[in-house]
Amino acid sequence: MSDKKSKFLTAHQIDGHKGIKSPHAHELDNMGKEWGSMLLNVDINKVKEIVENELNGKIENLDFGEDYTITIEFFPEVNIHILYYNYLEDEAFGNTELRFLFSGERVNLIPAEDLTGYIEAALHLIENYLENNGKLYDVLEKKSSLLQMAIRQRIAPFKFFKKEDLNDLANFVGAKLEESEKEWKLVRTYFNELNVILSYTNEKLDISFQGNNVPRVDNYSRDQLGIHLMNHCLRFLLLTHPDIEFPKIVKQMFSYSYIKSNFE
């Protein structure tokens, strides 16, 4: 494999399982078969417009034999590549397929579960714009039980953040930092006009959403974006303060391969 291609990882490599494919690798295989038809007969310029304007991504070719690749940033130095293959001229392979690769200096930190969740949210948003039906999802007035539980599970380690950490934390997660005397906020733009806001004050952690595109993403995917942001904050915490004895959940935020290489 060329040096250029060796920088791209699969979900199986990130999961760090030997032998048979990991569950998340299988999940992505199934997603690739299910979602590939979405891009069939869609002009690449239309895909390019959606990817650049709505997902803040780009269209490129990674030289893996794909028709084209959709590249989006999950977090700084964590890139997701969605490779589109059209096999219509060779029916032995089926019609279309998506494959998924990952790159970036920090991509090995992220478990494949989080990467898969972000891919699913992105594909749902692409589908929404391709169907051009203006489909909107109800935005719940109250947080879902899933998001409430995720916040409760993750809140304890946030008390370890120091004021001097916050600028570096914002850069690590790719967010804008807003500070006041009693509260700090991270505003992370995942998709165009869809911001996830993490706020922390008086040992209270909250996740909220802001922007015109918030209703374009279903509630489950939206909640996942908030959970992803909390997860990445906890990764920064352990990497920045490795000598502190954090609750077990902090270490659980890392990929299995990273845990095996660095914590065991």
Written overview of the protein:
- The chain is α+β, with helices and mostly antiparallel strands.
- It has two domains: 3-131, no CATH class; 145-262, no CATH class.
- The chain contains ten helices and eight strands.
- It has helices at 3-6, 11-15, 23-35, 44-54, 112-131, 145-154, 166-173, 219-240, 248-251, 256-262; strands at residues 58-60, 68-75, 78-86, 96-103, 176-179, 183-191, 194-201, 204-210.
- The strands form two sheets. The protein has a four-stranded antiparallel sheet with strand order 1-2-3-4.
- Helix 3 (23-35) packs parallel to helix 5 (112-131), helix 4 (44-54) packs across helix 5 and helix 6 runs parallel beside helix 8.
- The longest helix has 22 residues, at 219-240.
- 34% of the residues are buried.
Spell out the key features of this protein.
alpha+beta; 8 strands; 264 residues; four-stranded antiparallel sheet
In short:
With 264 residues, this protein is of the alpha+beta class. The protein contains 10 helices and 8 strands.
